[in-house]
Each structure stands twice: as C-alpha cells, then as structure tokens.
Amino acid sequence: MKEHDVLIIGGGLAGLTAAIHLALEGKDIAVFEMNEYPHHKVCGEYVSKEIEPYLNRLGVNPNAVGATNISQFQISTHKGYLVEIELPLGGFGISRYALDNMLYHRAKELGVIFYFEKVIRTVFKDGAFIISTITHNYTSKIAFGAYGKRSILDKNMERKFSLKKNSWLAVKAHYQIDDFPEQLVGLHNFDGGYGGLSKTETGAVNFCYLAHYETFKKYKDITAFNNQVVAKNPFLHTFLSNAKPLFSQPMTIAQISFDKKDAVVDHMLMCGDTAGLIHPLCGNGMAMAIHSAKIASELVLRFLNDSNYERHQLEVEYKKRWSKTFSNRLWFGRKLQRILLNKSMVTMGIHTIGKSKTLLKYIISKTHGELIS
Fold first, then answer.
1. First to last CA, the chain
2. Is 42 strand, coil or helix?
3. Distance from C-alpha of 211 to C-alpha of 233, rounded to nearest angstrom
4. Within 10 Å of residue 246's Cβ, how many Cβ atoms?
5. Residue 83 near residue 98, CB atoms below 8 Å
6. Distance CA 295, CA 106 (A)
7. Does 245 sit behind a cis peptide bond, omega within 30 degrees of 0 on the bond before it?
8. Where along the chain do its domains lie?
9. What class, spelled out in words, does domain 2-165+257-367 have in CATH?
10. Kind of pairing, strands 6-9 and 29-32?
C-alpha cells in the first residue's frame, strides 16, 4: 500500500490548485486523474480576476500563455434585446486545455505524484483513508474530493443529488470567427437554456451552453437543436452562421445537478464542483473551484502541522468557511437561473436592468468575490 500525506481525487482546477498549495509547503501529495494532460473539459472558460493574485502566488501566470483580458459583459433576451456593461472587477479568458496543463506542470515541478487511474472506492477507517483503484491501494490522513460535477463515487457515498435523475445538459465547442471582441464575455438566452461566449488564449471563441433536457430531447442531435432552438436568439444565430467549428464534435455532459451538496462527506473534504456547482450564468465557477482549494489547503496544513488541531475541528471549520464564502453566491445563482428560464421574467428583467447599470453591477457583484491573496 502506497502512503502519502494527502490524496486528491480529481486533477481539475480544484485538485491541481490544492496539490500546488500543499506541495509548496513541503507535503507529499498525490493526485488521481483519469486522463493524461492536456485535455479539454466542458466548461465556460471565463475566469474572474478575483483569484489572479492567488494564482500568481502559486507560481501560475495565465498571461504567460496568452490569456485574454475580459472587461465587458453583455446579456441578451431570447429575442435579442441586449444590455452591455463594464465588469466591476474583470476577468480573463483561457481554455481548460491550457489552464489545467499549466497547473499540472507546476505541480510536477513541485514533486506532486500523479496516478492516471480511476478511483473505484474510498474508505475511512481508524483515522486514515484507503483509496482504491483497479491496480493499487493508497492511504493518507487526508483526502480531497475534487472529481467534478458527478462521479460513481457520489453514489457509493450515497450523496442525495446522485440518487436521482437531473435534467441539465451542458454542451461546449470552440469556434473560429472573425471580429469577436477579445474583451467581451456574453450571456445569451434561448428557449430552455442559455450560453456563454468568450475568447480563449488561442483566439478561438468558447461557446458553452446549458440546456434543459426536456427541451433538448425533442431534437435528433446537437446540430438540429442549435439550428432550431439556440439560433432563434439573433446574436447566437449570427455567431453560429459565421463561426467555423474547431472540434470534430461538441463535448457534452449530462445529468448535471445544481442541488445543494455537503462540503465534507465521510471525512473527505470536497472542493470545486464536487462541493457545489454554481450556475454558468454567474460566470465564476472556475474562480470558485480555485478559491475552495485555497480554503481547504490552509486548514489541512494546520491539521498536518498542529497535533492539537483535531479532525472534527478541521471539518467544522471547513464547512463554516465554505458556507461563508460561497453559499450566498450559490443561492443567488439559483434565483437568477429561475428568472432566466422564464421568458417573460427574463425579458422584463433585462429591459429593467438595462435602464440601470448600477443595478446590473450589483447583480454581478453578488455572484463574484473580492480579490484573494
């Protein structure tokens, strides 16, 4: 059985960030990830600048690979009524292909071990975790769950959201198109869903949308759905008519749940989407994943370095800090999504906020955090 100080299940933003943070403090860290780097993931690829100072502290600089500077936000109704505003804090555009790969190489520099295997079972016994893959067992005092939106592990741990069907489908692809503003992130509504547009470090535009499955299943494939539903929004119609797809096929994730999740399950600290998924319309799920890893790592360091700081204290404190930092954002995101999925409400709402940039900036601020160091 192989032993490490900390085992991290999942090598996405949260898992990689935690690995770097802890490795910088001299800890022996191992990460389980099913896919070799680099690889694409279904994700809106706009990142709030709230986490930029923290990434720099970890030795990660997205600007080094050409991340775009995003300063403008626009939102449109189903019929194309548009409101545009300057983002209070701003963000940057970078693909998960590039950002995850940067974090991976930084972690490798610091001595983090990577096991490219699927975790099939986790057990907590006698103050330690045993994590099993098909080939080996691994043990540690601390384990992070950072495996994303959904996993068989959720069912094994009987997490409530995983035991029922969920009705959301996410679709992502990159496109080449002339004259898309580099500084812009857009959120555009259509029947049964909404999608975001933003430029990445390669110059490609990421289009990632969320659709209700009841709407989507009426059509034979993504192309038909795009043509007959998504493109009814004039802005998305123009985009899809003029853009050249860069993926052979769009990427998809089904059974997405926005239900409340526990931040600690069977003594495992959950980070990123594994602990709570914010609606894509809020535009800062990537920043939240990174921030959650920071919170968990700081507390774990105390647990590993201070024999008087007990596990139950660690778990209680993590739940409190996670809730204080993110629960209001998640609540506000759920409320906003209900509005966006109601045609009359979203039309009235966007027309209303279009008359008050102060109000729109307030709404944006409720879904974003402040700069963290």
1. 37
2. coil
3. 14
4. 13
5. no
6. 19
7. no
8. 2-165+257-367
9. alpha beta
10. parallel
